[in-house]
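User: Is it possible to get a 3D structure for a protein together with its bound compound? The compound here is 4'-deoxy-4'-aminopyridoxal-5'-phosphate. I've pasted both below.
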Amino acid sequence: MTAKVITDLPGPRSTELAALADRYIPKAVFNVHQVFAQSADGALLTDVDGNQFIDFTGGLGVLNVGHLPPPVVEAVTAQLARFTHTCFHVVRYDGYVRLAETLARITPGDFDKKTVLVNSGAEAVENAVKIARYATGRPGVVVFDHAFHGRTQLGMTMTAKPMPYKAGLGPSAPEIYRMPFPYGYRCALGPHPDDECAVHCADYLEDAIHTTIGDERVAAVVVEPVQGEGGFNVAPAAFLRRLREICDRYGILLVADEVQSGFGRTSRMFAVDHAGVVPDITAMAKSLAAGFPLAAVTGRAELMDAVHVGGLGGTYGGNPVAIAAALAVVDMLENGGLLDDGVRLGAQLEAGLAPLAEKHPLIGQHRGLGAMRAVELVTDRESRSGATAEAAAVIKGAAERGLLLLKAGTYDNVVRILAPLNTPPDLVDEGLAILDEALTAAR
Ligand code: PMP
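Assistant: Yes, that's possible. Here is the predicted structure of the complex:
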């Protein structure tokens, strides 16, 4: 066994640090796990009390490459010996240009593209919306049920769930229109098989554009091809293709929020690649830079160039150390076998979770795309009522047995896996065995 928990959780050192955190950090800054990190390597994390965990969280979907992959460490170290910051607006550097060139090549679409680099997923989404509004001269933005796009004012407005993301934190930004997402298990238009749901949701959206927003008032449709925080709800390929058609018909820009689903997470470079759908603008962050704060907006060159000089940017956007990490990440995906690792991990997780979904009545649905996989827990399969407390118990129970997991879902009843794509197969099996035990214990 690799997972080794030798104290109660949290252990004494974590408890001491937690007391300090309670004193100096606002309680709004939430924590999934109560332990404090000491060190990490690959898919393993050791806490300050010497407990060793298998890490299926990847720092919230940021570590598709795992903790401290040598190519990233080398690239970052080399950059640290050159300079850490100049501000790209003040003195430019090669890395920014090289990463823009790389993202133009690897994002979908065979046309000229340009990239602006920013600091977070929320900032990437906000910039995508700013660019879309500017380029189209239209105000409206279509988003979806169960969506998550960030915690800034615009990001939280675009996010669906009021608690904890919006309640009391308003006012909301204007001109955001929410539509049903084809999440067949719980679609607002009624539970359907996913293929039917795709048609109903696309028809509804097209009709709503005429009847409630106005054809010429919509700048962009912003979609997560696999919803992350919303519970790993996979947009059927047919739905994404219909979105593309609808956008083309009405001069609307299609923005893919690939912040969580990008960089090999779904076993392709981007989740939209599965559907063969080409967005006009792609927002990226998380696993782009292996934990360094970096996000990107890549889009059609003519759209990106629409905004006047000075309209985009920021002091830290495109930090050179983070960029060095990102270039190493993309190289690992393209040339280091990491995309193939993701395909293997996705298959192993799917094969390992299917029998758990059979065995445990608590699991209402097992779903995902590639290595972006989750189980949705329900109190009973008939009512599909969300098993929120049980999901929390599974996550706590798994941690006590040495596996770090994350929750998701509108009802906080989804247990999701964001393990590094290169997690060794024996660790994946060990993690799944712990999940099995935690599911048994949580019933
Ligand atoms: N979009 C999606 C799809 C996300 O999953 C997230 C983060 N969970 C964001 C945007 C916001 O990213 P950040 O937390 O870096 O602002």
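The two ends are 25 Å apart (CA to CA). The chain has 13 helices and 17 strands.
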